[in-house]
Amino acid sequence: MSDAPSAQAEKMNFQAEVKQLLHLMIHSLYSNREIFLRELISNASDACDKLRFEALDKSELFEGDGELKIRIRFDAEAKTVTVSDNGIGMNRDEVITNLGTIAKSGTKEFFGQLTGDQKKDAHLIGQFGVGFYSAFIVADRVTVRTRRAGVAAAEGVQWECAMTGDTAGEYQVAPIDKADRGTEITLHLRDGQEDLLSGWKLRELVRKYSDHIVQPIVMTKEKWDEEKGAQVATDEEETVNQANALWARPRNEITDEEYTAFYKHVGHDFQEPLAWTHAKVEGRHEYTQLLYIPGNAPFDMWDRNARHGIKLYVRRVFIMDDAEKLMPMYLRFVRGVVDSADLPLNVSREILQESKDIDTLRAGCTKKVLGLLEDLAKNDAEKYTTFWKAFGNVLKEGVGEDSANREKIAGLLRFASTHADTVDQVVTLADYIGRMKEGQEKIYYVTAETFNAAKNSPHLEVFRKKGIEVLLLSDRVDEWVIGYLTEFDGKALQSVAKGGVDLGALEDESEKKEVEKLADEYKDLLERVKTSLGERVKDVRVTHRLTDSPACLVADEHDMGMNLARILKAAGQEAPSSKPILELNPTHPAVQRLNTEAEHFDDWAAVLFDQALLAEGGTLDDPATFVKRTNALMLALSNAQ
Ligand SMILES: Nc1ncnc2c1ncn2[C@@H]1O[C@H](COP(=O)(O)OP(=O)(O)OP(=O)(O)O)[C@@H](O)[C@H]1O
């Protein structure tokens, strides 16, 4: 029963998503039921960290008790397990928001991806974050008693939810008196969970999952009672975890299991990390970094304001969460801890904004992470592939964002190309250069909105014929990457859909002469087409790049590529309007036919232009006229036969 006077208790309904999540949690995560303790301890530890941070300039929040700790108790008779902390606590509004709703970004995507298959869904919930609600895996009633630091005892709040009978979708909130600040969470265990009512079992779980928690986790000491033949509680308390900073220990004394358990806490992740790097840096600035690459992208990765980044400590004292200044945006998936020996203990977010020391820390952390990625790429291709699939598109942002490390980041990029002609992004720029034809000076690429549009682009025809590899870029961010990455290892990057194709030494003299000759022969035709198309084209010329298609559109050397112009337009941005150049393939029968056409010349010219635009991935601004013209030409042809 609740300790609160029921007259003042208020019934409230969970947000619909919470109900769904609770249901899923209980059904999909049952085989992982032990994690509830890790999650509650992790939250308690975060609550202590938050208090420490808020108390930096408001020491009265400690209320005379600065020794932050987490306590675990159990009551075998009442069948309860209680986790309490003397951290920041919550007020009524916070209780309702934090425990009654899900305010996370990515919530919609998460629910959209659920399949009903328990295994798959368990994996998804893990990625989404299990948190407080995991308590309901082992408990059918949960009581939270909490009081925010710094407010009066009478401002305590009790939250309670029973998952039985008709009340499953609702919870109760009531005011209570709570003398000590912080949060106490009592789990009323479900039938069959009695094994958790044991000091030995709970200690085992703490050691297994929460040993690395920095605050002491205390439990009542037990001793063996011969008469009763059982362990009995004493009046003393003892710390049951290591309660020291894992990152401050020497690397060779930390096991992989410990690194992994620590990651799950700092990364708010349910799954294993992909890789980590742990180093103590000495010199002008002294700091320790323990940085992890997660195995999966979190749901809120595309939310550039998402939290959960790097925790900053100063000489092992927690300073702040999500110190975004410590990692560049394009490495926002990195999780972990940086512990500085030089920053002042009273450092604030504002000081951090301007601190030169932070710039040094960030440069050091960035270097470490890029080094770790290089190492993975070189020595563990499988892991690197996993990394690339999850975070490749975020890393690409770095090409524009971090000019100092541009070459390094470029070396980490992976592309699809005409070499394998598959959608898999596996080609490095170095691989490409290694396969360049003799006499080839540039790295060629094509950008398009989809992989198939890139792969089948008419602009590739001459490259395919000559066996020259072309990178196939179809991720949105690629246009941005290419805008900054103009060369790699001394080789310029060149779009196959821009400017004239100058294949340099790859083109033989006779081919060049042939094109020049055709250009001369077709001079009049080019002029007529240009006049016919009027404002739609900048120029009309004979192509070097087509072998099979009759026509294609290209952007002038210094104009914006057409794919980028479309992306900008779709994003509602002004793109400088530049007209394309139409290139015609005089060896194609359609173009030869055009040369002799009199009556339907304008229709032919317009259809060739529109087809080239479609093949290039563009959209017609007047599709109905295109259809009408094509039909008219088909009829004219069949009448002529
Ligand atoms: N012991 C506690 N003391 C103070 N606040 C708490 C405590 N436990 C939970 N909360 C609050 O409730 C919120 C929701 O907790 P929950 O565990 O569901 O998610 P989370 O910790 O924010 O994220 P994640 O599930 O990804 O770890 C927390 O963000 C915190 O604000």
From TrEMBL:
Major location (coarse): cytoplasm
Superkingdom in the source lineage: Bacteria
Region (A): 1-349
Any one Pfam family match given in the protein's UniProt record, by short name: HSP90
Keywords, alphabetical: ATP-binding, Chaperone, Coiled coil, Cytoplasm, Nucleotide-binding, Stress response
Coiled coil stretches, renumbered: 508-535
UniProt-annotated binding residues for ATP: 39, 43, 85, 90, 98, 104-106, 127-132, 183, 349
Localization per Swiss-Prot or TrEMBL: Cytoplasm
Region (C): 567-641
CDD domains with a match to the protein in the record: HATPase_Hsp90-like
GO cellular component entries: cytoplasm
PROSITE patterns, sorted: HSP90 (PS00298)
GO molecular function: ATP binding; ATP hydrolysis activity; ATP-dependent protein folding chaperone; unfolded protein binding
Domain Histidine kinase/HSP90-like ATPase: start-end pairs: 32-193
InterPro entries: HATPase_C_sf, HATPase_dom, Heat_shock_protein_90_CS, HSP90_C, Hsp90_fam, Hsp90_N, Ribosomal_Su5_D2-typ_SF
Protein purpose: Molecular chaperone. Has ATPase activity.
Family that this chain belongs to: Belongs to the heat shock protein 90 family.
Subunit structure, as described in the record: Homodimer.
Protein's recorded name: Chaperone protein HtpG
Upper classification of the organism: Bacteria, Pseudomonadati, Pseudomonadota, Betaproteobacteria, Rhodocyclales
